[in-house]
Description:
The chain is an all-alpha fold. The protein has a domain at 14-176 and 316-342: Up-down Bundle (ABC transporter transmembrane region fold). Helix content is 78%, strand content 0%. The protein is built from 12 helices and no strands. The longest helix is centred in the C-terminal third of the chain and has 53 residues, at 238-290. 19% of the residues are buried. The mean pLDDT is 82.
Amino acid sequence: MFHGGWWSYLSYDESKPKPVLDRQLLRRVFAYGKPHWRAVAVVMVTIVAISLLDLVPPLLYRELIDHVLPNRDGARLNLLALAMLGIPVISGLISVVQRNYSARAGEGIIYDLRQQMYVHLQRMSLRFFTNTKAGEIISRFNNDVVGAQNAITGTIPNILTNVVTLGSTLAVMLTIEWRLALLAVAVFPLFLLPAKRVARTLRAIRRTAMEQNAEMSNIVNETLTINGALLVKTFGSQRREAARFDSANAAVRDIGIRRARVGQLFFMGMSIAGTLGTALIYWVGGHLVLDGAITIGTIVAFAAYLMRLYGPISALTNVQVEFAQSMVSFERVFEYLDKPVEIADRPGAQPFTQVQGHIRFEDVSFQYTPLPGQPAPATDG
């Protein structure tokens, strides 16, 4: 239940400068959403609706345990069963609507961005295309535009969902029993700090694994292409290259085993921490039940709410870096959009509707200028 928010933390490279959120960049990104504000509004409403609906099942559990079963109320039991069945169905239908409008807004924004960049690049001079690699332009369309799309349809809605879920869950828990709510929140830092330390180690292992995989790929590229294979066979260095590849291959194997081991320990620790929170709720809550302060159903409801509390908190621990990284794609697209057009039409220029006339060359000459100390180049033959 904690995995979602930690992946961006593990994949972030500390050696690189932290992405900075720029207000001007944010205003520019959000400006693209204005033509699609209706779809964006529907997405926000559906996120809130789903978050509120998901708060109801634990309350139904409490009602079932505290009132329906002790009173043997069959009619009310049937209503609770229908509610427990209906809420996931309604929530699922709302999710379909949310996904539909989220796709509309995201695809619409990316369509506008992609079209604007294409039209702008068409107006660029030949100097731009001469000095810019074709792969770089294609990368802006394929990688950066897709990255911007993922930010619109994935990162931003996920952040909003986690914020709404966290706020609504915490509000309900404080309303039901504020002492247990404070206990649930107080437990989280006890495993957040150790988890971040272990995650930092796992991140370093992951970075080392990427470097060693790159080294192994480099050896393959050097020795198994036609030119590389020709050099290896010419100098008879097959054994030396095989030993070099064996060393790199073994390093990749060993770091992979270590990454798997540390990763399993990391997520096992996260699961144990979640279990610790649940155990404390049952332990403290059990004493409150024995003292007559709360009911058994309240403890069960709290245990269910813990899942909704810890998940968003862990997801939001690295929200600034995650959101800033998602904006990098927009920044790279805007970098191309902001390139000045060297040859631009004058204001008020009229398009040609019918072109007539001819081209004349007057007083045009051509010659080769010889270099100092060199004979004049031949102009014929």
